[in-house]
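Shipment paperwork, digital attachment
Item: protein structure file
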Amino acid sequence: MMYCSKCGAQVAPGSRFCSGCGASIADGAGLHTQQGARLPRKDPAVAALLASLPGLFGLLGIGHIYVGQTGKGVAWLIAGIILVFLGFVFAITIIGLLIAIPIWIAGFIIWIVLIFGAHSAARKFNDAVQRTGQAPW
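Attachment content:
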C-alpha cells in the first residue's frame, strides 16, 4: 500500500494526484510505503514535564527541544536565563524589586504558556508523523 508523503492519505496504484490533498504524484516521488513509520512518537506528557520542571529554574524551552523545535527551544532557553538573571539583579535593592516582580510574573506566565505549547507541539508532531511520515517543522 502506498501513502501520500504530503497528507498521508492512501494512494491508489497508478494515480497521478493524491485524492486527499491533490498533491502531484510524479513517478512515485510523492509516495512512501509505510504511513507514519519514519520518526518515533513524542509523548506530550514528557514534553510538558520537560517544559515544566527545568522551567522552574528558568530553563525554558527544553520541552520544545524534545519535540524537535530546536531553534525555538534554544531561544526560550536563552530568554529564560536572561529573565532569571535580571530578576535576581533587580531584586537586590528595594527599588529594583519593583522591577523584579513584574519580570517574575512575566516569566511565570511564559513558563505556563510554554508547558502547554510543548504539549501541543508534541501532539502536532505525532499527527504529522502519522499522516506524512515527516516532522512538521
